[in-house]
TrEMBL record:
GO annotation, biological process: rRNA processing
Protein name: ATP-dependent RNA helicase
Gene that specifies this protein: DBP4_1
Annotated organism of origin: Tieghemiomyces parasiticus
Composition-biased stretches (Polar residues): 1-14
GO cellular component terms, semicolon-separated: nucleolus
Gene3D superfamilies, per the entry: P-loop containing nucleotide triphosphate hydrolases
Family: Belongs to the DEAD box helicase family.
Length: 796
């Protein structure tokens, strides 16, 4: 009784504690709401205004900030956090390294805390990031400052198991994701609901739109509820960001930490640019790394293939260089590993594409070197923003070609970016051209990577929109190829885009026919109409049948020329001719399916339909009648699976209520008939089982006791006959004697009882299993089987 009283007292005490804690939280939430509504921004000269303690934040958030050693607010945090606590839509612009992540994470946690958000309430906050690395970094900051809160947070990015994410995503209160992965879960994950969303955050909004996620973001926003708070943060405010703000924000507050007269880069960042020839870039970069071994630096290039080639070549030439490579073609696990390794290293060089240019916070980065010219001043600002963060010092170096200098410097000056020119001393520059040539000569894979780096760089220049800065025809292709160690420059054809789709299709067909005709010998081309070349003949006719050589032949052997030996219009003579495909892949070497069939008119005359024509017929049939089920035969002709009556035809047959009653009566009769058949089958099955059991018992009674039909079987441990029948039979044959008991050394019986039984060979079973006659009997009907069963039962 005393124990029960103590348990009851403890339970009552715990309930009182929970009620008291809940009352305290409600009082704290009411005070915070009041303080947030009346909070006024104070000038930055007052030190109390830049401390987190002065902001109307909950105790849990303040403790998380103190544990993470966040004590003072930056300017963007001091302006954005009070507006976020009031649930105002925000359009924020701040230079890189100004603390935008905390500017939206702190009010996000406070809004969910004041709403007393739980797991049952579903998704409360959604943060969208352009890159996986930035999403991982935001998640780590959220985990650091939100440890005292009870919200569940998840990271949804590509490169991980979709099934594992689907199992946990529905239980998340805060979600950090990339745009593509988020839209995939919205379309494929059942139960993923965003109707209760409170806050939507788009970090690096301009980069999200620049990377081609505009349609994805619009689709995501359409799936969200309109009664939400939306925050857009970025280092630069472009026209596309303002357009997105007009679509998704309601009366937003514009927050900027610098005026138009101020620079858009950190004040302690020393920025220089250097004009050099294209073929000297790698020599200058290698010389810089040799002269600054104890440095932590970021090196940006245009394409993934360039990063791979530079990393592989420099590590072979100088194995002691602390080099890392980060690009979008790597697997997610590899990217996270390299990201963490660069964070931990004190001295290291990270070769990266623009995947590392946005929002990533690398501590103590000394230099940012841009090997290739950025596409616009905004990209430049984001790249150099990886250094000189949080009022620290840093340096930036930009390598420009003579054709790029005037346009890019003028664009940077217009954006108030203070860049100054410097020159390099030729005496301190080391040439690595001969070493690269030796590597490409010794290793075909290095040569292949060099060719891919050459192609992807020229393609990146060709695809730039600002033609005043980027002129692919002004590039010294032969000299650049020699600087990469290549024996010659691959010839690249740049297709001029046309608005007429028919012209583009005709041009592709012409190029495919020309390339196919040049691949085949002259004799085969003349006899192509008489005897087609089989796949086996083509396979044996190939040369250098290995993976590297196959790609290599695509780069150097295939050239496209006109009948007079000249290149087509829009072609630059750089070596091997390759089409420039405007897609997400960095590879230019793509295999296009040649159209070897007849034209549409010829196919129609011969009665054969192409896949495109069949698709048109399907679309036309579906648009014609959406209420009917249509199937197609092999020739693409439409066949109606069933015809639907119109309402008028249905009414002509009589009263609707009477027709419904007749239909129900007919269905009930059919169901009753089916039930009667099922019951009859079940009754016959039971009778057959009963008959089989009686025949079995009758056969055992009539079995004789002759010794020839009996074999001893030993059963151990009281096991059943079915379980140990076969094993006991083998045991008895191996022993050669019949055992009845099992004795120990003292002569007493052991605990295991040995049961001896006789296995009987039943001829009736054998006769039941085997047919008595080789003559096959005709099949009997259900009524005949029933009569036979009743007659047998009567005889027994």
């Amino acid at each position: 009784m005393a124990g029960n009283k103590s348990k009851n007292a403890s339970s009552v005490g715990s309930k009182d504690q929970r009620l008291l804690r809940r009352e305290q939280e409600e009082k704290e939430i009411a005070k915070l709401e009041q303080r947030a509504a009346t909070y006024q921004l104070v000038s930055g000269s007052d030190r109390q205004a830049v401390l987190f303690e002065t902001l109307p934040l909950s105790k849990r958030t303040r403790e998380g900030l103190q544990k993470a050693k966040y004590l003072e607010c930056t300017e963007i945090q001091r302006k954005a956090i009070p507006l976020g606590l009031r649930r105002r839509d925000i359009l924020g612009a701040a230079i890189t390294g100004s603390g935008k992540t905390l500017a939206f994470l702190i009010p996000l946690l406070e809004i969910l805390y004041r709403e007393r958000w739980t797991t049952e309430d579903g998704l409360g906050a959604l943060i969208i990031s352009p890159t996986r690395e930035l999403a991982v970094q935001i998640f780590e900051v959220l985990h650091t400052i939100g440890k005292r809160h009870t919200f569940s947070a998840g990271l949804i990015i590509g490169g991980k198991s979709l099934k594992d994410e689907q199992e946990r995503i529905c239980r998340m209160n805060i979600l950090i994701s990339t745009p593509g992965r988020l839209l995939q879960h919205m379309n494929q994950t059942p139960g993923f609901d965003c109707n209760n969303l409170q806050v939507l955050v788009l970090d690096e909004a301009d980069r999200i739109l620049d990377m081609g996620f505009k349609r994805t973001i619009n689709a995501v926003i359409e799936n969200l509820n309109r009664e939400r708070t939306t925050w857009l943060f970025s280092a630069t405010q472009t026209k596309s960001v303002k357009d997105l703000a007009r679509l998704s924000l309601r009366n937003p507050e514009y927050v900027a930490v610098h005026d138009q007269a101020e620079a858009s880069t950190p004040a302690k960042l020393v920025q220089n640019y250097m004009v050099c020839e294209l073929e000297r870039k790698l020599d200058i970069l290698f010389s810089f790394m040799k002269a600054h071994p104890q440095t932590k630096a970021l090196v940006f290039a245009s394409s993934c293939k360039q990063i791979r080639y530079i990393h592989e070549a420099f590590t072979r030439i100088e194995p002691g260089l602390p080099l890392l490579a980060l690009h979008g073609r790597q697997k997610q696990s590899k990217r996270v590993e390299i990201f963490d390794q660069f964070l931990r290293n004190k001295f290291s060089y990270l070769l990266a594409t623009d995947v590392a240019a946005r929002g990533l916070d690398f501590p103590s980065v000394d230099w940012v070197i841009q090997l290739d010219c950025p596409e616009d001043p905004a990209t430049y600002i984001h790249r150099v923003g990886r250094t000189a963060r949080n009022n620290a010092e840093g340096r930036a170096l930009l390598l420009l070609l003579p054709s790029e200098e005037a346009g890019m410097v003028a664009a940077l000056k217009e954006k108030k970016v203070p860049v100054e020119p410097i020159k390099v001393k030729d005496s301190r520059t080391t040439s690595i051209r001969q070493k690269l040539q030796y590597l490409c000569f010794q290793d075909p894979e290095m040569k292949y990577l060099g060719q891919k780096a050459f192609i992807t760089y020229l393609r990146s220049v060709f695809l730039q929109k600002n033609k005043k800065v980027f002129d692919v025809h002004a590039l010294p292709a032969e000299e650049y190829a020699a600087s990469l160690g290549l024996p010659g420059a691959p010839r690249i054809k740049f297709n001029k885009k046309s608005n007429d789709k028919n012209q583009d299709r005709a041009l592709k067909r012409l190029l495919a026919d020309l390339s196919d005709s040049e691949d085949e010998p002259e004799a085969k081309r003349t006899k192509a109409s008489e005897k087609p070349v089989s796949k086996v003949d083509k396979m044996f006719a190939r040369k250098n049948q290995d993976v590297l050589a196959d790609h290599y032949t695509k780069l150097i052997d295939h050239s496209v020329t006109t009948a007079d030996g000249t290149l087509p219009s829009g072609t630059t003579d750089f070596g091997a001719t390759l089409p420039v495909v405007d897609d997400d892949d960095d590879d230019l070497v793509v295999l296009k399916r040649a159209d070897h069939g007849l034209s549409d008119d010829e196919n129609t005359q011969t009665g054969e339909l192409t896949r495109r024509q069949k698709a048109r017929l399907r679309k036309k049939a579906l648009k014609a009648d959406l209420s009917s089920k249509v199937i197609f035969d092999d020739e693409g002709n439409t066949i109606h699976a069933y015809d639907l009556k119109t309402e008028e035809d249905f009414r002509r047959e009589g009263d609707i209520s009477q027709q419904i009653a007749k239909r129900l009566q007919r269905d009930r009769a059919a169901v009753a008939e089916r039930d009667e058949i099922d019951r009859e089958k079940d009754r016959l099955r039971r009778q057959a089982q009963k008959l089989k059991r009686k025949l079995h018992e009758k056969g055992e009674e009539s079995e004789g006791d002759g010794s020839d039909d009996e074999e001893p079987v030993v059963m151990l441990g009281g096991a059943s006959d079915d379980d140990n029948n076969d094993s006991s039979d083998d045991y008895s044959r191996a022993s050669g004697s019949e055992r009845t008991t099992n004795h120990d050394d003292s002569g007493a019986e052991s605990g295991e009882e040995v049961v001896v039984r006789k296995r009987k060979r039943s001829r009736s079973r054998k006769s039941a299993r085997e047919p008595s006659s080789s003559v096959d009997e005709p099949p009997r009907s259900l009524q005949t089987e029933e009569e036979l069963a009743l007659q047998l039962l009567a005889d027994i």
